[in-house]
Every structure is written in C-alpha cells, then in structure tokens.
Amino acid sequence: MAALAALVFGTVLALAILAGSGTNPFVAMASLIHGSLAPESLSDTINWAVPLVGMTLAAAIPLRAGIINLGGDGQLVAGGLVAALVAIYGPQMGALTTALAVLAAIVAGGLVALVAALGETKFRIPLLISSLLLSYPIVGVASYLVTTPLADVGSGLAQTVQVPEAVRLGLLGGSVNAGAILILLICVAVVVIDRFTVFGMHVQVQGRNSKFALYSGVNTEAQTLQLMAAGGAIAGLVGGVLVLGSFYRFIDGALLTPGYTYSGLMAALVGNGHPLLSIVTALFFSALQTGGFAMQRATGVPRVFTTMMQAAVVLVLTLKPGKHESHD
Q1: pLDDT in tens, 154-211
Q2: Integer Cα distance of 28 and 295 in angstroms
Q3: DSSP, residue by residue, 40-86
Q4: Largest CA distance in the chain
Q5: What is the pTM of this model?
Q6: 271: which residues sit within 8 A by CB, 6+ positions away?
C-alpha cells in the first residue's frame, strides 16, 4: 500500500508542478500516456522495460533479505562483454551459440556478485562497499579491452565487431527481441519462489530480522551468497540481452549510460524488495521514460521532468513522521 500511495502522490505532485509552471497538466499527462502506451510507442516502452525490470529484480532479490546490491553496473557489463565474446569468437552454431552466450552472461554476472558477497561473508567487508567498488575495475577492464585488443578496427569507436546475425536474439515483433520472454520468465519464477516456497519465506524472515532468522536456523551467510549470485546472474542476463538483441555488439559505456542500474534500484526500493511491487514500479518508470519524449514534443516540458517524478516517489517513501520526546 505504501508503494501504491507513493506512486499516486508522485503523479499528483507532478500534476501540481506542471499546473504551477503554466502548462496544462492534463494535456501533458495525456501526451505522456499516449507516448508510452499507444500501439506505435508500445515497443519502445517494452524495450526500455526489459532491461529496467531485469535490473530491478537484480536489486530486489537481495533487498528482500535486507541486502543492498550496488554492483549492478559491474555485473551488467560483465554479462554483456562475455556474451559478446562468446557470440563473436565462439563456435558458430546458430541458436546453440546464442544459448551459450546467454548462459555465459548469466554466469559472469553471478560470479561478480558472488565475489562481492564473499567479501562480506568471509572477510567482513561491508557489502555496500564490496559490491560498489568491484564494479569500477570490471568497467575499466571492459573499456580497455574494447578500446585496444578487441576493438573493431574499422570503427573509430570503442566497441567490438558486430555479433553474427545467426547468433542474435530473434525479434518477436517490431523492435522487441526474444530477451523480453527471458525476462518475463524470470519475473514469474522470482514471484513464485518468493510467495510459495520455503526459501522465499526464509528470505523474508532475514529481511525482517536477520538475528531472528539466524536464531531460527536460517543460514544467513549462505543465503546472502545465493541471493547476491541470483541478482548478479539476472544483471548479467540483462547485459547479454542488450548486446545480443539491441546493440549487436559490446559498446563501451552503452550499457551504463541509460542508468538502468540505479533506476532499477529505485524501483526495488519503492517496492521494498517485494518482487511484484518492484516489477510494477519498474514498468511505471519505463512508461515515464518513453512517454517523456512525447510529452516534451507536445508541451515543451523537458523529459527530465519524468526523472523528477521518479525521485518524488522515492522521497515520499523515505518520509517518516518525526518523533518528539517529552521532557518532564
């Protein structure tokens, strides 16, 4: 309920700001909705939602247990780079190579997150630090590789050569690729595990009270490793889907520029780690992003206004009534 209230309040606040600036808020919101959900725009919204929902789950899965994963960038880049390398330099066997590239992306992202989690469970390095700082060398190494040894010599950009056509993810319709099905299946699996399995219950117990979970027999360290690996694996999958289904090559910085990692983290925070609420929030944020272009064209309101709406939603959830102590 809190997440729904925050989404509603954020929308109302946006309407009030638009009205105060002299813009007709109803025209602006109508153009935003049409620009994100109209048939001619829906494929753009889906293409934005696929990586954003994926990165939301990458953050929400550990967050459900009270664990914050700040290493999404590194996990995303690792998955994308490995997928490109397998697709380009691996044996060319069509769909089988595609499957191998996707699997390699999942493993790469999961391993990166697992290393960060081991930093906390084995060496007591706070996960916030280990997950965040691990991203920098991974992004740096990837940038070096596609700038020098793996660069496309026929291009002036830091990028690999194109992925062979036979290895690319197929299109479902318009510009939407088969990665959308993979992310949809992941969403269903995560929701089912969270709601209907003992493991899901243990994760929720750890999120509510880690000490109680430990005393009740839950191996919180092992669970932390599992959750981080799962979140990282999904982030790696997102990187693979973008490389194999959208860019058709690994381009330095292209996976990070849209800000999927931190938009996904915001959506997960709004949903408080609850998978279904987090997914719905990510879809809402995706509609805001694509609809923002149409709103800017129709009313002149800058697209960055939609980012402000996202921030307003998050801020509402962080507001807490102050506590006043009485002194006799």
Answers
A1: 888 999 999 999 999 999 988 899 999 999 999 999 999 999 999 999 999 999 999 8
A2: 6
A3: HHHHHHHHHHHHHHHHHHHHHHHHTTT-----HHHHHHHHHHHHHHH
A4: 79
A5: 0.92
A6: 3, 56, 60, 277, 278, 279, 280, 281
